[in-house]
Amino acid sequence: MSLLPLFAVLTGNDYISLPALETFFSRVHFPLGNVSHTGRKHFRIQGLLNWLSRFANVEEAMENVLKYLNLKDQESVRQLLYSAMEEYDLSDTVNLETFFHGGLYVSPTAVQLNLPDWVQNALAKGALSPLLSDALVLKRVFLHAQVEDFRRISAHNVTQPIRKVIYALLLNMYQSSQAELQENKRNMHIFVEEFDRLETNLRRSRVEISFISEDSNEDLSLQNLPGVRYWS
């Protein structure tokens, strides 16, 4: 499991674009595995996982990555890869083997937010959209630009009220009583950071999420959301 950060960095999970890494992938010979079952587009991922499993630790794996590179690139690539890997914090309290073998994983963030089981399961399996998982875990989302006239305001502006309700649901901010609602309004301010466009430039804004009493709509809560039905 200690090799997972290196695996993530090598597969481009951190948006690292290095010609030297393409040199590595063009020279290394991965175990073939069951290519016909996974499809060619998954060959690199499966092959890299199998290849990394041969090594006892990160240091050994790193040296075997670097040996496929030109000598002049090795030290700079080593520093960049280790720097990117520092963004990963593999908690000692989380056993990832249970997830890879049985699909079971308990997110500390999900437990802290007292999320229902259906959300915890979806989060662990990667079944939530990036907008939802980023808002839930990072409180930060990127709003991808639409195909639109960039001289006008972003099309995401009109849907911000809807997103605020989604954020409030995800962050479990629906309170059980008006008294609790008023108390939290006075003492807590929670924001989700949104990245959108302003004309052709990137714009960052902080969206304050309002607490809402469950009395206003007893069906609108994360716990019973899968059972809610709407008719026009």
UniProtKB/TrEMBL annotation:
It comes from the Eukaryota. InterPro entries: Asteroid. This is Uncharacterized protein.
